[in-house]
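Aim 2, interim progress: modelling of the guanosine-5'-triphosphate-bound target.
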Amino acid sequence: MGRLLYDLGRMDERTRTANERNSSKAGKSSFSWAWGLDGTAEERDRGITMDIALQTFSTSKRQITVLDAPGHKEFIPNMISGTSQADCALLVIDASTGEFEAGFGRGGQTREHLILARSLGVAQIIVAINKLDQVQWEEDRYDEICELLRPFLVQSGFHPIKTNFVPVGAILGVNLAKCEGDDAKKLLRWYHGPTLVDLLDKLEPPSRDITAPVRIPVSNIFKGQGSGMSVAGRLLSGVVQVGERLRILPGDETAVVKSIEVEENNVPWAAAGSNLTLALVSVDSIQLTIGSVLCPPTDPVPLATIFTARIIIFDIQVPIISGAMVELFHHSRDVPATISKLLATLERTSGKVLKCNPRVVAKATSAKVQITLRGTDTISSARPIPLEPYTVNKAMGRILIRREGQTIAAGSHLYLKPPFFMSQFLEQV
Ligand SMILES: Nc1nc2c(ncn2[C@@H]2O[C@H](COP(=O)(O)OP(=O)(O)OP(=O)(O)O)[C@@H](O)[C@H]2O)c(=O)[nH]1
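Predicted structure of the complex, ligand included:
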């Protein structure tokens, strides 16, 4: 990403040489490009991305916001928070001998990231096969990796039409924005396809619901000037404007939007799909946390501590039983929860009920379950999450379920537990 930002003129020569000099002084010269995005001392020290780094750039046809997500297993919650704000994925594969295999092996990060991205609604993907300089730019190695990844991508739900592969040598700038120069010649012996930027240019902007009410899950909070606060997040639906009052959920607080920043510009309003930073005033910061959702006071998101969801179980070793203690992820929030009831197993495609009240749900099945959030000691002390049924707002309905550091299921919220809605209506849903 650092190299791409430089090639596209988004990183100036001064920053590049400073990163080169300082990373070399720290004995981390191979990470000098990564320093363009990995800004914290710990990230630079460990040579890994830990939190989401946000950058913007333009190609000839697209304005792109990059949410650089960590690849390391330890930081999956941050990866989930970033990916839930994304339209498209750019998966970077290390082609060096043994490295691709380590990531793609069972339990490896490549598989988990692909499943997570698709489960979080990302439908378009570009797979950049990187570090080809390490394998002498061999066409066979590139083909081998593509052939191994292709069936797994399909199995994870990525449509072949929305999947593209591209060979690159990022450190040398080969086939990112251009494919020229001595290093590129080795790739050009067998590759004459698009560059990474050509593929970015062809990404389809997804349709946005600008008529739906405003929904902004907060992914980051900064202290603003004076008593104000700034929050970052993605506007999932609707249009937000300066001067508007927004409700902060959960809680009873509201805040007034003082300014809106999109791609480093102040704007009077922003529409669904924008990654924005809002300066908020008239707000009690205690109520505002990462994972809060901002919405119009007149059209709040329902709050849930118990709800029903349809989930797909991943490749897990231990089946899920009723009472299973899990961690529930919804945008940037993760909360302790219990799978309190197994209501039915379902046919994966049609959703038809196969069996009511199963005793267990095993890997690769689909199920309807009841999920109950857990508080510190009792269920009643659980802090609710703002959650909308999938049929009302897709992006606000998606959930992920993890157990002991492993993602075990993904799905969508169907409805809140009675008495929030009429129970007869529920059965029809
Ligand atoms: N030989 C070679 N090394 C590369 C290339 N691209 C990146 N690297 C090296 O790979 C290492 C990891 O690069 P990063 O950019 O930090 O990789 P990342 O995927 O963002 O890793 P995380 O931060 O852990 O998510 C660094 O030492 C880079 O110099 C390449 O094209 N060829």
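The domain at 2-201 is CATH 3.40.50.300 (Rossmann fold). The pocket of guanosine-5'-triphosphate is lined by residues 30-31, 34, 48-49, 70-72, 92, 130-131, 133-134, 169-171 (CB under 6 Å).
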